[in-house]
Specification:
alpha+beta, 4-stranded antiparallel sheet, 16 strands, globular
Amino acid sequence: MIDIESLVEIDIPGSQRRKSGQGFVIDCPFCGGRMKLNVNPHKNVWRCAKCDRSGGPVRLHAYIKDMSMNDASNDLNRIAAAQPAERNHRTRKSQKEIVPADIMIRNTVYTRLLDHLELKQTHRDNLLSRGLREQDIQVLGYKSYFDVNDTLKRSETAKQLIPDGFPIKAGYGIPGIRGIGSDSMTFVSKRDGFLIPVKTEKGYISSFQVRASEVSDDIPRYSWLSSSQYKDGCIFTGCETIHHAGNWLIDPLPHTIGLTEGALKADIASVLYDRIDPKAGPHLFLG
């Protein structure tokens, strides 16, 4: 069977690519979304962030050619048989991927990072306009991320948070940092915005979302703090994206737990529900 990257070249020839995470993005051939179709060669899947169509090679071929899944599968087998073997199976890089360090190490680094950052007034005003109070903002830990052009501060901060001897094993890293253990170690910054801590049920920071100050066709409002686009960076895994808002350490847990999209929405919902109906609280949300 033809892999997803080869199929993009066959079914969507001439598409312009931009590197993103573990793969790349192209214009969506279905809804026309500019740079919205994400292709992940490692997982052999694709998904459009605008129209939400997704799948593997067979489904992409079926959509493009207006075929049934069975016909698309048979057609891909026919195409694969006619192509040179090296076209059907791309040679993967032998370089071992750098995977996220243990949650306790990430929590330590990320907590220290927040201590090094401040919250810009524009970001504070945005949060206050959503119904949060100053105390809520402090407890939730929102901070403005490094300015894109502040390369010196990004590098100096990374080296302060991960000094020589810091217990990160070879092959492991911190999403958002590249070059761990080298002189070029630094935090990655692709956009200006503020950090939204994504926490486990025990309150440990597993990852960050970044809410961009400004958006465009090329810059979505929300993204994950990641360095996976660099060879010396750390891949980012989806299992770290579930956010637990509220106090999940209470015993017993409430009978009802809310589910919403996004860590920021979950935090705000938890805070506002507790404020409106304190006797029924605490209110817990997954985001």
